[in-house]
Design brief:
This protein is of the alpha/beta class. It has seven helices and seven strands. The N terminus is likely disordered.
């Protein structure tokens, strides 16, 4: 007797081909670069069309009280575009919700649902909202909203007002969640680690907050690069890859 078991976890041994279209949904500028920059660079080199969507405006991303928030927002948007260029991404979407105050609301799910339908990704990437001890509320809210939006995007009965001759329901082939609590999918980034680093360095406003003053001089940059390389090596060691990024893979 055959038993049908409903599961959104990927079947063991089912490979993920290089996608033609990709959508990343990050809470802040630089989130996707930290979580999946090497993967995105590799896919771009293979011809994938990548859209990087950022939910917040990045307006709380500094420890320097002398920087006006309006200037910081403009700075972070420009950095995001530069980072996307470093990875070979085709488009950047900035939703500009207030940094630090993101919530998984119906309106945010609707907005993300639209972008999933409009960009039609084969693979969508975002935060793992089930990561144990994840402190940042924006990461939790964005991850769960992105997953909820995938469920909505695949069904014509959710937000039917979005559906037109040019925008239709859409179901990605896979969801990849970075910073995963229980990773089960790894991507070799040995050849694209430098592109990931370049993309991260484009976020110069975050040098002090997340990169150990990597922009302050060659020694600090080297320290940051070594830290990132060690992290990637640790991910790869789990599956015998030199440098890797790891994800939780779901099938929507």
């Amino acid at each position: 007797m055959t038993t049908n078991v409903y599961s959104e976890a990927r079947p063991d041994g089912d490979p993920l081909p290089v996608p033609q279209r990709v959508l990343t949904i990050g809470a802040h500028p630089d989130d996707a670069e930290f979580g999946a920059g090497g993967t995105l660079a590799g896919w771009s080199e293979s011809g994938a069309h990548i859209t990087m969507l950022v939910v917040s405006d990045g307006s709380k991303g500094t420890w320097d009280p002398s920087i006006p928030q309006e200037a910081l927002v403009s700075m972070r948007a420009a950095e995001q575009r530069a980072a996307a260029d470093a990875l070979g991404a085709a488009a950047v979407v900035m939703l500009e919700h207030t940094d630090g105050e993101l919530e998984n609301t119906r309106e945010l799910r609707k907005e993300l649902c639209y972008w999933i339908r409009a960009t039609r990704p084969d693979v969508m990437l975002s935060h793992d909202p089930w990561k144990r001890y994840m402190l940042h509320p924006d990461h939790r809210a964005t991850g769960i909203a992105a997953i909820d939006a995938v469920v909505a995007a695949r069904d014509h009965l959710f937000f039917p007002e979005q559906l037109t001759d040019s925008v239709s329901k859409h179901r990605p082939q896979a969801i990849l969640l970075w910073a995963a609590d229980e990773p089960d999918h790894w991507v070799d980034i040995s050849a694209t680690f430098d592109a990931k680093l370049e993309a991260l360095m484009a976020h110069s406003s975050q040098g002090t907050t997340t990169m150990g003053d990597a922009h302050a001089g060659i020694d600090r940059r080297t320290d940051f690069e070594e830290r990132m390389r060690a992290w990637a090596a640790g991910q790869g060691a789990q599956v015998g890859i030199g440098l890797a990024e790891s994800f939780k893979r779901l099938t929507p």
